[in-house]
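Researcher: Last one for today. Full complex below.
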Amino acid sequence: QKEVEQNSGPLSVPEGAIASLNCTYSDRGSQSFFWYRQYSGKSPELIMFIYSNGDKEDGRFTAQLNKASQYVSLLIRDSQPSDSATYLCAVNPTSNTGKLIFGQGTTLQVKP
Amino acid sequence: DAGVIQSPRHEVTEMGQEVTLRCKPISGHNSLFWYRQTMMRGLELLIYFNNNVPIDDSGMPEDRFSAKMPNASFSTLKIQPSEPRDSAVYFCASIGGRGKYFGPGTRLTVL
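Model: Here's the assembly. Have a good evening.
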């Protein structure tokens, strides 16, 4: 089992819709969770992080964490074509050393 | 701040040659990470440093890979000898403030 799993997609949503990206992780002791956005040919860019169970909102983005179920999700409201990218889920395992474990990423396509 | 700086941005070399990738982390960040990204394997951590000291190199694929961080503002990743399967994008990242910040990457092609 991979340590961090994401559906590779592509996930296709119409402009203005809510995009929901999901991620599961295997290390139950993981403490912090990150979402990165990566445009084609570019480097990953941090967009959200979450440490506690529940929701965390930042503009059009909401990160949701459920440690009991070992999943973390990212919701993008009012999706725009510019949101089309690969979204990487990253988990900081128990040792909390900054050693992020990345999922394979989910490709999001927002169609005008 | 200029962000994490990497050089070169692109490198094409022949199998067997030595390749050196360079990274300058964001000033004040005391942890530096080297990642490799391929379509097949995604983003893999190779090695990371804390206060210039290598902490975990378990991701380094084999002895052909080596990394150094002689000071807080400079790190190198060396591959000697290079092989075609080393072709990938190599990212350097540093930690500070709210999270981990990646450099633009070096796209390495080994022919």
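The mean pLDDT of chain B is 93. The longest strand of chain B covers residues 42-50.
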